[in-house]
Design goal:
Structural class: alpha+beta
Radius of gyration: 38 Å
Number of helices: 29
Strand order of the largest sheet: 9-8-17-15-16-14-12-13
Mean pLDDT: 75
Length: about 850
């Protein structure tokens, strides 16, 4: 802006003549509208010089005449060349100076004619406004300017603080701040407003450079990002299993390449359980922002050079993006959440505010002025200046209400973003557009505490989730406890401390330091490239399972987790929860699975039954259950772990203990008068003939189950004739490759392996079975059909051709499925009940035998 000052004694007093120029000027303005209309469509560029000189003369004559009304200054938007002011009688008395304040500018009914304008002030009030008819838009004051060179807005940093506090609050305490994830939408609007403002200003000054723009982005984004990526990758080396570390490597690469949103889009949803153990999940939003800033500057520069109206193009693209968002939010909510083209409208909302700031629209200005005047009359007794501040304050308050409503009412169970994203987006737009002097912005967002948090908002956003995610990974059953609440508080405190240090000693020196800017940019590019390449290497190398001191050393790994759990929880007796993980052993065998840390510690003798409350309570509950059936023969049938039968296929660093964890528990059963059969020795003797367990599954296969059941019957003193009658007509053939559960549990990209699946068949015809459901319904089944107990639904099988005329109850689980064909072949009536069934005392005649099947890993 240029401000022209003059001495009233040197100015012409011919005010009447000046008023006549008003009429001429309005006619020129009307003609200008028509010429501009055709010029934009027919490229009639040669018409403009004719009117420019005449218009500048009119500006000066108007300015001189304004002295008659007591005007003291003339503000010109945009800056006018000094030579255009030589028209007029007293130019020697005029001085031209640059002004950096745009706060006093207002709109005029002619604002739709042209983008630039001047205004004249009298004692702080604007009396007359005349608009430039020839220059491109560079000014305005719908909001304070986003460009740092044109005024810093502390309320924007305060708004950043609200956004990051909402996100951190949701991630740390999702049950309290259930809608805090909308803070990301606030960030999107702020980012669109600030960055587009800088681009528009540079374009107006004809000094925009892609290299400068992206160098500025690199100095802003890369320092903290590299530090976080490097820390997370190094931490994973010491604490993650190969499958976990492989996935982390993929996400490090995605974060460095700003493709995180695409990667997570192709994996699972943002709100699923697995998301809590992805330390770089939060980088999806950074990916969308940087994808936007790869496309948007090119589009804006093209629009500017072709002399299209930027606002028109921006609004059209915003509408298309919002249409895709509205179209997908129910049909494919994951795509709607992660896709850039369904999120760009939020950044473009901020771009619209920045564009209107520099290119005022008449009807918006008129509405604002009218409403402001009405509000002032409604709220104030004394007359006040109609400067728009009252209206801006009301808009600011409305924006705060929208944001708070979005944060405290939005739920993860709702489809998002969709139409619900309008709340945080419009709320942020209102706060930015209302200017820093609006009451809500000044009171809530410009205070020192909020501004300070806003300044560290970017590093805090980057640091907080890795801390919380690693806490989830190391969680040993803490979730839902007060200990877990304190763990999350500690994580947030550490993240905040690191954010402050990162901002003070990393971000500020690199971003604002004036020395070696080009060297900084080049170095940051190299560092982020290297960390991205390292992540890609980890992913391609399957999580580097050869790490001798971490992933394959499961015993040390479990100890590390317990140590961290003890440190965080201030207790020493917490055992790991069920993580449902699997790991590759020698020759491609998969092991463990459910409750893998506990299984590992039991296998290696790291813990004993005497110090686990679980083993004590489970054995006691089993004894109490079976003692309810006095006078009935009872036996506990053990399903050995696959690692007990095939320890040679375990990962090299695991050395099973010579003392089995389960031995004291089995002795306790026997001391209570309950018979126990452990088929481990039977299976070990037979394992060289055929594989007895699936290589990719936690369970024994049909042949292993057959040998175990046959050994159980012999232990129960069934006669050889009965066993031969039950199984003498039985044969086994090779079955199709079995896609075991450990492939799915561990999310391995492995194929099923042939040679470990066997299907039982009768050599001679055998009668069908009858299945009786709990409601009395009956249906026929093949004679060797596999069945499994439902959790609360008993399954009864009748076999008129059974080898023995016995009624048997079997309390079992998934291990019972492979064994069931052989139980059905032996017993005339078999009732399958789940070990976790709620109703175990059944009416009717008592059974002849009760078999309680217990898997070794579950004790």
């Amino acid at each position: 802006m240029a401000t022209v000052n003059w001495d009233e004694n040197d100015l012409s007093t011919n005010y009447v003549l000046l008023m006549k120029f008003q009429v001429v000027l309005k006619l020129l303005a009307a003609l200008r509208v028509s010429i501009r209309f055709f010029r934009e469509r027919l490229d009639l560029k040669l018409v403009f010089p004719l009117f420019d000189a005449k218009y500048y003369i009119n500006i000066m004559l108007w300015a001189f005449g304004m002295e008659m009304t007591g005007a003291k200054s003339l503000a010109l938007y945009p800056d006018l060349p000094a030579e255009t002011l030589r028209f007029g009688p007293l130019l020697a008395s005029l001085s031209l100076s640059l002004s950096l304040s745009l706060n006093t500018a207002i709109k005029h009914p002619f604002s739709h004619i042209c983008p630039g304008f001047i205004h004249i002030q009298t004692n702080g009030r604007t009396d007359f406004v005349v608009y430039s008819l020839s220059l491109p838009p560079t000014g305005g004051s719908m909001t304070d300017n986003a460009n740092p060179k044109m005024g810093y807005r502390s309320d924007i940093d305060g708004l950043r603080a609200l956004a990051v506090l909402a996100v951190v609050g949701y991630h740390a305490f999702p049950d309290i701040l259930k809608g805090g994830f909308v803070g990301v939408d606030i960030f999107f609007v702020i980012s669109g407003f600030l960055i587009s403002g800088i681009i528009l200003d540079d374009l107006a000054k004809e000094k925009f450079s892609f290299l400068t723009f992206y160098a500025r982005r690199i100095r802003r984004i890369f320092p903290a990002l590299f530090l976080v990526l490097c820390t997370v990758l190094v931490s994973g080396w010491f604490s993650l299993y190969p499958d976990e570390y492989q996935l982390l490597g993929k996400h490090v690469f995605g974060g460095a390449a700003f493709l995180s949103n695409i990667f997570f889009w192709r994996e699972v949803g943002y709100f699923d359980v697995a998301s809590s153990v992805k330390p770089l999940l939060h980088l999806w939003s950074l990916g969308i922002e940087e994808q936007f800033y790869i496309i948007f500057p090119c589009l804006l520069v093209f629009t500017w050079k072709k002399r299209f109206r930027p606002l028109t193009v921006i609004v059209l693209i915003l509408g298309v993006s919002f249409f895709f968002n509205a179209h997908l939010y129910r049909r494919n909510p994951i795509a709607d959440f992660y896709s850039p083209y369904t999120r760009f409208w939020e950044l473009l909302a901020g771009v619209v505010v920045a564009t209107l700031d520099r290119q005022p629209v008449y009807f918006i200005s008129k509405i604002k002025t009218t409403i402001d005047a009405f509000c002032e009359k409604l709220l104030f007794l004394d007359s006040v200046d109609n400067n728009g501040r009252t209206f801006s304050s009301l808009v600011s308050i409305f924006g705060i209400i929208l944001l708070l409503f979005a944060i405290f009412t939005t739920r993860i169970t709702q489809h998002f973003p969709g139409f619900r994203a309008l709340l945080p987006t419009l709320g942020t737009v209102c706060l930015i557009a209302s200017s820093s002097q609006a009451w809500g912005n000044r009171v809530f967002f410009s205070n020192k505490a909020m501004v300070t948090i806003g300044l560290i908002s970017y590093p805090l956003y980057l640091w907080h989730w890795p801390f919380l995610s690693y806490a989830h990974i190391m969680d040993g059953g803490l979730s839902g406890t007060w200990s877990w609440f304190f763990v999350r508080i500690i994580c947030v405190i550490f993240a905040t401390m690191l954010a402050i240090l990162t901002y003070r000693y990393v971000e500020r020196p690199i971003r604002f330091g004036q020395r070696a800017k080009n060297l900084k940019v080049f170095s940051l590019l190299c560092l982020v490239f290297c960390i991205g390449a390292s992540g890609l290497t980890v992913y391609l190398k399957k999580g580097l399972p050869q790490r001798s001191f971490s992933a394959t050393d499961f015993v040390e790994r479990a100890a590390v987790r317990k140590k961290i759990q003890t440190t965080f929880a201030f207790i020493s007796y917490i055992l790991p929860q069920d993580f449902h993980k699997a790991f590759i052993g020698n020759d491609g065998w998969l092991f463990l699975g459910n409750d893998y840390d506990s299984c590992l510690d039991k296998l290696t003798g790291e813990i004993s039954p005497a110090i686990t409350a679980h083993s004590e309570s489970s054995s006691s509950s089993i004894i109490a259950l079976l003692k309810q059936y006095d006078g009935i023969k009872k036996i506990i049938f053990i399903g050995p772990n696959k690692s007990t039968i095939y320890p040679e296929h375990l990962p090299t660093d695991i050395r099973p203990s010579s003392h089995r964890y389960i031995s004291p528990i089995l002795q306790k059963f026997q001391e209570s008068g309950i018979d126990v059969f452990d088929p481990t020795e039977v299976l070990l003797k037979a394992k060289n003939d055929k594989l007895l367990y699936y290589r990719t599954d936690t369970h024994w296969n049909n042949f292993g189950a057959y040998l175990a059941v046959q050994g159980l019957l012999m232990h129960l003193d069934f006669t050889p004739e009965m066993i031969d009658k039950a199984f003498g007509n039985l044969d086994f053939t090779s079955g199709p490759p079995h896609n075991g559960d450990l492939i799915n549990i561990g999310k391995f990209e492995l194929k099923a392996v042939a040679g470990d699946n066997f299907v039982p068949v009768w050599r001679l015809p055998h009668g069908d079975l009858t299945l009786i459901e709990s409601n009395g319904a009956q249906k026929s089944l093949p004679s060797l059909a596999s069945v499994g107990p439902g959790l609360d639904t008993p399954i009864r099988i009748m076999n008129p051709n059974a080898a023995g005329n016995l009624k048997v109850w079997i309390f079992g689980d998934s291990f019972s499925v492979a064994a069931s064909p052989f139980f059905n072949a032996m017993f005339a009536e078999t009732l399958y009940l789940h070990r976790g069934s709620k109703s175990l005392l059944l009416e009717g005649s008592p059974p002849d035998l009760i078999i309680y099947e217990g898997v070794e890993r579950d004790f």
